[in-house]
Amino acid sequence: MIASVTFGEVTLKLLEGFLSTLKIFGLTLLFALPLGLVISFGSMSRFKPLKYLVKVFVWIIRGTPLMLQLIVIYYGPGLIVMAARKAGTSNFFIDLMEKMNNFSAMTMVVIAFVINYACYFSEIYRGGIESITQGQYEAGYVLGMTKRQIFFKVILLQVVKRIIPPMSNEIITLVKDTSLARIITAYELIWAAQKFIKSEGLLWPLLYTGVFYLAFCGILTLLFGYIEKKLSYFRS
Amino acid sequence: MSLLEVRDITKNFGKAEVLKGISFDVEKGEVLSLIGSSGSGKTTLLRCLNFLETPTSGKITLSGETLYDSEEGRNLSDREKRDRRLHFGLVFQQFNLFPQYTALKNVTLAAELLKREELKREKASAAAIKEALEGVRLKAAELLDSVGLSDKADNYPCQLSGGQQQRVAIARALALEPEILCFDEPTSALDPELTGEVLSVIKGLAARKMTMIIVTHEMEFAKNVSDKVIFMDSGVIAVEGTPDEVFGNSSNARIQKFLKSVNN
Predict the structure, then answer these.
(1) Chain B residues with CB inside 8 Å of A158's CB?
(2) Is residue A139, in this structure, part of any structural domain at all?
(3) Of the ranges A33-42, B65-74, B216-225, which one carries the lowest mean pLDDT score?
(4) Residue A224 belongs to a domain
(5) Tally of domains within chain A
(6) What is the ipTM of this complex?
(7) pTM over 0.90
(8) In a mutagenesis test of the A interface, which of B96, B112, B177 is the best target, namely the one with the most A β-carbons within 10 Å?
């Protein structure tokens, strides 16, 4: 079949897919960045049961492929609901699974990505927080500051400065991980390109997607470089 | 009644007994130096006074008010520790300035937070709070001036020498107007040529009758500035008295050995 679509038309379609990619990226960051902090506090908790529960959870999430997690979260609820119907049981958990089963693929993708990335972020946060010397806390204490004040006024910015390099790594990985959404039928950039193989027999749009990823990662790299420079006025 | 009365303070870390019953008094306007080899418990004692550590047993009284009494048999809450800490200032060996703030902001930060909290409790107007904070800044600038750093107010800690950082740390501690200012080996992390500028600031404070407790390895300085010297050895007070009594003590073999080793 002879190609009947122009470069401009392909670009527009890919942009559409890219917007969806951006949506997964943006929503994942929006929820995973704060959730990661909560998880890192859990993994540093002095309450041992909570600490180990969180550590096991992080181990499971970091120890299995994101692709597998997507499949579990997408197909799992349906399987559970079916099994429950067969057994005739019904409870709060089954109701929740039923609700989840009706979520859109996009919602499932975001849920899986948020959980996965929050766990990775939590370990980066934990490393950053634990790298701040005890002396900074003690200086705050003897100046009559509360724990909360010390964390937000003294510790946090120093942690941010230290975790920018590993965080930029993770965030750039996230850009490319969004392409995994495709396997549970969530529409994004790769999918938009693959459609041209089926409909027009064109392979080059798929290669063309690389330009979008490269450009976006380039912008992020510049952005992180800028933040690093902004925070270079102090050493810690 | 003395300003500070410390009675039978002990502190154990696990099985290690670091303080084995320390008692002493500090009068208002007095300078007390704590000397002794490392591991003798000087720093731990200072940290107990600043409630960075909680004594295992003993009693601490300030101006007749009981700050800590192990007989009461309960742990202090964060809030109680915070209230008690405000009676004391502490200057650390490693300065511990906040790296992301300028010298001036290091001095004002905690003072501003406290002022704001106090005025909010009194339901002061926004204008009154603003004025009070301006006062805090003015006072901080004066303090920096008094330690000879008025030209460094806008510099960040990484742009300052160790001696300058330590002088900022002293100004920062003074900003909260502590009743007793403690120093934990304030010159031990400094190059020898920088210790003088820090010691002269401390001498200036002594001349203005600031009550101070100083852990130091600078024997000459301790001899000159102190009203009272305590020589600690393995968690107990081995010798206590005026500088002449302690440094001239020839009957105690341990202090003789110690003085000999630091003079070499």
Answers:
(1) 99-100
(2) yes
(3) B65-74
(4) no
(5) 1
(6) 0.92
(7) no
(8) B96
